Every structure is written in structure tokens, then in C-alpha cells.
Description:
This protein is α/β, with parallel strands linked by helices. It contains 24 helices and 26 strands. It has four domains: 27-66 and 77-311, Alpha-Beta Barrel (TIM Barrel), CATH 3.20.20.300; 334-345 and 361-540, Rossmann fold (3-Layer(aba) Sandwich); 593-710, Sandwich (Immunoglobulin-like); 754-852, no CATH class. Helix content is 32%, strand content 15%. One of its GO terms (biological process) is carbohydrate metabolic process.
Amino acid sequence: MWRRTVRQTDVQQCSARENDMELEELSVAEKAAMLSGGSEWDSRGNEKAGIPSFVMSDGPHGVRRQLGEGDHLGLGASKPATCFPTAGTVANSWDSALAEEMGEALGNEAHDLDVNVLLGPGLNIKRNPLCGRNFEYYSEDPIVAGRMAAGLIRGIQSNGVSACPKHFAVNSQELRRQASNSVIGERTMREIYLTAFEIAVREAAPMTIMTSYNEINGVYAHENKHLLQDILRDEWGFDGMVVSDWGGSNSAVAAVKAGGSLEMPSPGYTSVRELEGAVTAGTLSEADLNARAAEVAKIARMTKTEGVGRDDLLKDAVAAAHHEVARKVAENSSVLLKNTVIGAPARNGEANDAGIANSAVSPVLPLAAGTRVAVIGDMAKTPRFQGSGSSKVNATREENILDELKNAAATTGVTVAGYAQGCDRQGAKNQPLVDEAVTLAASQNVDAVIAVVGLDERSESEGLDRSTMAIPQVQNDLVDALTATGKPVIIVLVAGSPVELPWFDAVSAILYVGLSGQAGASATVRALTGQINPSGHLTETWPISYADCPSAGWYPAIGRDAIYREGPFVGYRYYETTNVPVRFPFGYGLSYATFTYSDLTADETGVQFTVTNDSDVSGATVAQLYVSGPSEGVLRPARELKGFAKVQLDTRESKTVRIEFDRYTFRHFDTAANAWRIESGVWTLAVGTNAENLPLTCEFAVAGDVDATPANPALGHYLTGDVKHVTDAEMAVLFGHEVIAPGKPTTFGVNDPISSWVDSKGFTARTIAKTLANREAKTRQKTGAPDLNMLFILNMPPRAMSKMTQGMVDSAMVDAIVKIANGHTFHGLGSIIAGHFRNQSANKRTAKELNND
Length: 853
């Protein structure tokens, strides 16, 4: 792979003192102007101080460099770029070095497309499988998420481009995403929802970080001093720029005080006036303004791309090389979920009772040479390899499984006997399509069926949470019909999140490929035919049904407050503590090889053990270390992942594997002391291939900094992880305060979403909300994809209008809009008109002031 060597010595020669002097020469208004965007994707530079504007772009799994003004939802055209697998898929590789290799390619393309700051990776915790954006996030576990993100960040920044981990923090649902308040206990927040960000910051030093839309315990993330100053900067040592999510800034003055550096996309000059006025009034320290301006200036200087614009490289060798990287990532991230031994041995080369000619009992995968397959499913021919929303990439190439199977036939000996669509992609019942597929599958010319099924484009998107964990019913009906033929049915499962599998027992094999990027089809074919050995392991638990999920009873929150009632019992921490059966445990993944774990020992710095490949097939396994605290200690889940290693082994090979302890291994957050503590006592260490399969265990005495303290009996149901029956009183003990969810508001404010106007007493506001909702629903039904623009508007609070209209709307006009929401239509319209002219005059004065300066 072609790789650029980056030198930043020229930038670093500019001393901090010289930079400060340059900023000190600027007026308050000029420094304030640097703290908000100049357009949809550009910052504001300052020519006098030698501070260039810089470009930001979405890109957690591919650079989305938009043409012209652009938009932030992926609606407009963008330049071609490599579409790599999404974060939820990459995480299944459990390989931070592979994530770094992908990051190098991402950063390379960002540099050549004149992008200074690449907005990714996303590493929020997968609290619930229905979150519409889970495909963009790594895991339900912070150790996996943090280590994978750190690898990607290092790779991106090796090109002199800033990575931007997001969304900081406690962001777990898309419904009301700009008007939601995450109510969470401090210990849960620190241990579960912030640890991934901490690992990324400490281990990869990202230059930029993006705040989330939501409030956290009543304070917006972008103006949350506890989050941005106390934790991010003072505790973790972050010294970069904090940028708001697009439209996610609430108060420019409060943000600057708390540590928010840059608000995007562009509030025009409204924020400039607010900041200048606050400094003049003495309610904002100029030192805080200077600090934020310095952070923005630092990014501008450290990420100069100097107008390279070499996107033509993507048409040639670089594009081909990066396509290979995308394939490598997809190959290492596919997860073999099931692989059944089919039928009895055949005699004299005749077909066995499953219709496959063989001479020995063997699993259905990998497909043997000579196998004739029926390929069924719309996604086999028209691929789905990424999610919808701001991360959607204009891929340089596209592959599909049907063509890739045909192309590989000469090499693999596996031939395609035919193709059938099988079902309607939009979910409409169509019996002739099913009948065609069944006829093909039942043919004597078919030995096995490859059915490509999963979630469609409407199911996983920014701005929209899933309504169910099921895949479309027409696909379930199709699989049932295919298994009824008696032929082995191999499922290729396409989805960015867990799904229910009602036909699990009836199918012969399942290969989960996630959202595998533009080279996912060829990677899938290579796995099916044994050219590579699947080595992915799940980084989230797959429940049998959605009702089993710990937060199923209160997710997503439909009102303002999203209460994290389940506390630390997220994902496997819940299932392993309560012994609730699951479809696939966290960390699960099969292989064409078999592995044995043995000889576990522990010392003061880590654990060591042996892994052996017992088979005649080379392959890789993911060794996972879990710890359990002292039995007399504080409240904890039954076990928690604290380290892992991807181990590649040749046939019959053994390796000694070591996993080191670190600052995260034994700690817990003591809210009373506001500090991290380690309890002394006997801990249990366990090693294996998933959260349930842990063949190696040992006890280990830890000399901590506090004695083990029994959990408070008043925690009640939390003590056994039974969060579904937790009382309000028990929750108050966990949170450290009483939690009362507010009722439905009787009046609307600047931070209530447009969608809530359906309950307005005013006809105009009510009609606006209902019309927008109906339009989005009709578009989704007609096109098969969500209307991202409508979803954004519905979730948007009025105050965001002043942050996203390049100065056309100011805060006074927002107040007027809210009057309409509260039924004062004519008064509100009059105030809007008057405010418009007043705002235009103010903008002209501010522009003149800045130009004169």
C-alpha cells in the first residue's frame, strides 16, 4: 500500500509564545469569529494572524468530501472515496493493528481530498441493539471500542490529518437526538460510557474531539465543564480542539467557558456578537476566549494540506491499493456464527441425503470444489455494504456476491447454478418471487443454497432508531421456504446490528458479514469457499429476542429524559450476571480451525497462557481476558473484559500469549471520593474465546489502594443484575440522587424538538409537525430509504436554527418561532419579520467591524 511520510517539523518550530502573540494582536471580535464555522464544512481563518481556514469532513469508514457548499446529512454528491467496512464490522476483527492500517488509508485519502479534520471514529457504547447508528459504533464494551478507535486514530493522524472521535458523550439513541437529556450515574458514566474515549485519548492523542447533541444530567455536552475540562483536559490530558456536532451547540458563551472550542456548521455572526458582548460585560473571561482560539489555531497550523487536491490518485494505484485494504478488513471481520455437519458419508461419490457429493462427513462450510450453489436474495445482486446518513460514502468501486462467486469459479470449483431474487427488497409480499427461489433451490442441479438476507436501507440510519430487532418478514418467510426444500441453506447475513433469527435451527450455516464496505462481496466469497478462514468475533451480545435486552422496557426514551436505569448492566455485563440465555454471547465466533487454551498463569503485570491450533487448517482466534472482583467487594457485573489478543496460528501450531494488566484492569470509580480506586482482595481471572466459554481460570491476589467494601444492600435488584425490576428507590441509591422523569411539557421552549409540536395547542405548529412526519413516512415507504432531511428537522429544537443558517436566524428570532409553537402564530410571525431586519443590520455591522480590523 502506498503511504505518505508526514513531517510536521516546520509547524512545530512555531513556538507557543509566537502563536499567543499573534492571537493577542487580534480583537475580541476576531478571536470570537474563529470559534464558529464559516460554512457547512469550513472553519474561519484569520489572514492577519496567518491562521488558515481548514476543512472538516465526515469519514468514519470513508471520506465524504462533498462538492460545493454540501450538507451534513449525506444528501448531496461527494467525491469518490474508498468505502471501508463500518465500525461495527471492523470491531469484529478485534485487531487494532488492522484498524490502524485502515486508518492510514483513510487519512491518506483525506489528505489528498484537502480534508484537515476527519470526523470519526464513532465510539459510543451500544447500549441497546435498536440504536439506528449502532453500525457506526464499535462495541457494547469500552475496552474493545477504545482499543479499536485508538488504532484507527493513529492511522489517520499518521498522514498529518486530525481524527475526531465522537460523539462525546453518553449518546445512545437517535430519537430526539438534539433534544435529549441522558440521565446517568457518575460511576456508570465513567466506567462504561467514558472509558472508551479515555483509552482513545490516552493511547492515540487525537487532535480533535466532537461533542454529542444531548445533555448529560441536564447540561449540554458542548458546554459541560465537568466533561470537557475536569475529565477530558485535566484528567486525561487532552490538549486539542473540541468541536460541536453540527447544530449541537446551545450557548456559545457557555461553551467557551466550559471548554468547547468550535461550533459548527455556521451560526453566522450571531455567536460573535454574543461572545464579544459577554467579554465586554465581564461575564466571559478573555483568557477563556484566547484559550479556545488557540485550540482552533493549533488545528489550522498542524493540519495544512496546502491545496493538494490530488483526488486523481484515487482513480489509479491508490484506489486499487485501498480497495485491497478494504477487502482485508472485511475478510478479518466476518463472523462464522453457525457451521453444521451435513448428512452421512456418501458412497462411491454419490450424493448424500443433503444432496452434496462427498466422501466424508464435513461441515457445510467451506464449500468444497464441485459444489453447485443457488444464489438467492436481492442483496446478493444489489449489495448493501454501508449505512445511511452522514457517513455514507460515494464508493470508488462496488462488488456483489453473485458476480464474485461467478468470477471465482475457476479458482474455487464452486459454480453458480442460478440466481433468484427471492423477495421484494422493500418488504412487500410477492409469492411468485418466493416460488421462483424455491424451484431453483429444489433443482437437482443445486447442491446448496446461499441466501443473502438482512436489514434493508430503511432499518439502519442516522436520525432513526430501529423499531424492531427482526429482519423484514418477507425474508424470514423466504428462508423458511428454502429450508423446507431439504437442501443445505447457508445464510450470508447483512446487518450492522444484531437481529432475531427465528430460523436459526433450520439453516446449515450462517456467515455474518455486517456492513462490509465496497470490497465486502469478494471477501465474503473468499470466506465461503475457504480461500480465507473467518476469524471475526462479535463485539456485542446477540439476544434471542429483543424482550431479553436489559433496557428494552425504556428504550428509546420518547420524552426529554433518557434515564440509564440499567446502570452498568449493559450487554454481556447484564446477560452474564443474570444468566439470561442469549443467541450468541459477547466475543463469540467460530472458525474452520479448532483451538485449545491451556497453562494459564498470572503475575503482577499480566497473564500468560498457551493457544494451540489442533486442526489442519491455519486460522486465528481471539483470546479474551475477563476479571471478576472480590466477592465481598463493591457492586460489579459477574465479569468484565479487560484485555484481548488476536492470535494467528498455522496448522498444529502452539503459541504463548500474554495479555498485560493496565490502569483499566482492576479499577472502579468511587463517587464519594471522586477518584478511581482498586480494591484489595482475591480476584478471579478467566481466559477464553467469549464471555461464556472461558476454559482457563485462576485466582489472583490484588494489592489495591482500598479494602474491599461490600455493596450497599439498599441497591436491591442491582445486586443480582435484575435491572428490569429495579425500584425508583434502588435507582436513587445507584445514581446518588432521586431521579424523577418530567411530565409532558405544557408549553414549548427553544430546546423542545419540532416533532413535539404535534401536541401544540396552536393549529399552525401542530400542522407543521404532522406534515413533516407524514412526508418522511411517505418518502421512506416510496424509496425504501429514510428522508434524512425530514428526520433531522423533526428531531431538531428551534435553537439549532440559529446555529445552522449562517446567520439568517438569531436567538431572538428563535424565541419568536417558539411563540408559534405555543399557539401565538401571528405574534410570532410579526416578531420573526421584525427580527429578520434587525438581525440583518446587526450582521452587516459585525462584518464591517471584522473587515476593518
